[in-house]
Amino acid sequence: MLEREISIIVPVYNTEKYLDDCIHSVLKQTYKSFELILVDDGSKDGSRKKCEGFCKEDKRIRYIYQEHKGVSAARNVGMEEAVGKYLFFLDSDDFIHPQLLEVLYRLQETNQTTIATVGFHCVSRESSLNIIEQQVERESVRKDCCLKCDKAMKPRYFASNTTRLTAIGGKLILREAIQTIRFDESLTKSEDTLFLFKVIANGGDVTVLFQEWYYYRITTGGRKKADSIEFCRNKIEVISYIRDYEIKNNKMADAKCTEWIICCEIIKWNRDIQWTDDMLLKAYLERLIETEKQTCMFAKMNIFKRLIFCIGCAHYPFYATLERIWKWYFRILKWICVIGRNVEYNLLDKERGDTHKGTVFFKFFFRRRGGTSLPESCGTALRDRDRE
User: Fold this and answer.
1) Which of 193, 196, 259, 371 has the smallest set of CB atoms within 10 Å of its CB?
2) Is the dihedral of CA 236, 238, 242, 245 positive or negative?
3) Closest CA relative to residue 11, chosen from 35, 30, 34, 37
4) What is the tens place of the pLDDT at every residue in 10-63?
5) Across the strands, what pairs with 10?
């Protein structure tokens, strides 16, 4: 057994206000065989002083200082210095549940996967470690699952809010599996998405822990806003890399899904710039929209999605109205399904004929939706009633 099984890499940049919560959450871990590597990326506040203070208190903590080069460079330095069997990534303004390392390590040793991930629990900038104590009181049964690399790369899993494979925070990764993979230092946004995709594409299977034990602190009004050309360019570059990889490996269905993700991102950015005076950003998005329309995968999407994209980019207020109608449509469908089940259960206490009449509308409704039948629970109950 290695002296330190887990190396925790924390890039630090002007986060003096949140460092106490971050580091204390690590020191309170029930799993003790770790080293904590604090990589200061040229902070201008009191972060350096705090880091050096923690180093004196605990020998498992190492502090590294470098001139400001960006979060990718800081993480790469941490990876080079790490000695643990596994690498765990934590941002300096976030914090973790006291059992997280222990549970992820046990899952990794059992499942022998490359990556272990956990769910996010979003907290405000004023939140502290006390929120963990409140969640422990409501702790439920832990569940997990394994995803093979081919499955984990599919857009429905890779971009899912459950797996969180687009963000590096809360990931425990086998160090020997990423000897040749590093964060792209030319990217300032979405660099972790590209890194994780390369790890999985290199044959990395994934273990998913269904617990919200990574506490992600929201320190800005919204991370996904199109606040700069650099933000949009980096994100498009990363998602396009994934789409092109899928095309190259003849995964056309996945490539179409990824193309639709690109379209949705552009629509959201177009929404965000409605209230900005940044003419350079608007001009960039206009060029991006026209470029996207010329891609081969855009032409292969169904006409309905292409129409949505064109409306969302050309006239966003009209698109927003359609979106609200669409959401209400599905909400009403859900209500009808729920009401249908409730009506069925109530009518089962009556005569057989009345029960049949009471479900005629719902049978008709579901058939009109494309040949689908009444929900299985309804059909089973009716068949059981018929046998009687």
Assistant:
1) 371
2) positive
3) 37
4) 999 999 999 999 999 999 999 999 999 999 999 999 999 999 999 999 999 999
5) 38
Q: Which of 64, 131, 69, 61 is nearest to 95 (CA)?
A: 131
- Computed from CA positions of residues 18, 53, 83, 65, in that sequence, does the dihedral angle turn out positive or negative? positive
Q: Give DSSP secondary structure letters for 260-313.
A: HHHHHHHHHHHHHGGG---HHHHHHHHHHHHHHHTSHHHHHS-HHHHHHHHHHH
| Spatial separation of the C-alpha atoms in residues 186 and 294, rounded to whole Å | 26
Which residue type is seen at 27?
Answer: L
Closest C-alpha among 269, 317, 304, 303 to residue 289: 269
pLDDT over 90 percentage in the chain: 62
CA–CA gap between residue 249 and residue 243 (Å, rounded)? 10
DSSP SS3 for 121: strand
The per-residue pLDDT for 383 is 45
Interior angle at CA 173, CA 235 and CA 146, nearest 5: 90
Higher-confidence residue of 226 and 148: namely 148
- Computed over every residue of the chain, the mean pLDDT equals 84
- For residue 259, give both structure tokens: 């193309």
N residues, the chain: 388
| 339 token code pair | 């009401």
Contact 295, 337 (CB under 8 A): no
If you average pLDDT over residues 258-275, what whole number do you get?
Answer: 89
State the pLDDT confidence band at 161, using cuts at 50, 70 and 90.
Answer: confident
- Taking the domains of the chain in order of start, what are their residue ranges? 6-218, 229-314, 321-387
Q: Side chain identity at 256, as an amino acid letter?
A: K
Whether the per-residue pLDDT at 223 is higher than 60: the answer is no
How far apart CA 357 and CA 176 sit, in angstroms, is: 65
